[in-house]
Specification:
Blueprint: H1 2-23, H2 28-63, H3 65-76
Coiled coil: 31-65
Keywords: Coiled coil
Pfam families: DivIC (PF04977)
């Protein structure tokens, strides 16, 4: 009598396990996908934290007179009166068309 019900319980348990793994709204597949999303977002958060630190360092440098002058000279090629600027470009820094 007990062996007759034992097979039914095993089948029900197997169907329940398959349902929970694949078909349920809280299935293991969805959990794995959400865990990958969380990991990607954590990596992105860490990247942006590093960028914020780098930008804060740059802002602090630009608040100083020497840092602001250095930035203006390097990025906008500004100069003082009676001063000449020579821009040296290396071959690997030049933009070339691939059509040539």
């Amino acid at each position: 009598m007990f062996s007759k019900y034992k097979n039914i319980f095993v089948i029900i348990l197997l169907v329940f396990a398959i349902w929970m793994v694949f078909f349920d709204s809280n299935s293991l597949m969805i959990h794995n996908e959400l865990n990958r999303d969380i990991e990607a977002l954590e990596n992105e958060k860490e990247y942006y934290r590093k960028e914020i630190k780098k930008d804060n360092k740059t802002i602090n440098e630009l608040k100083k007179e020497e840092g602001l002058e250095k930035f203006a000279r390097e990025e906008y090629y500004m100069k003082r009166e009676n001063e000449d600027i020579y821009i040296i470009e290396y071959q690997d820094s030049l933009k070339v068309d691939d059509d040539e």
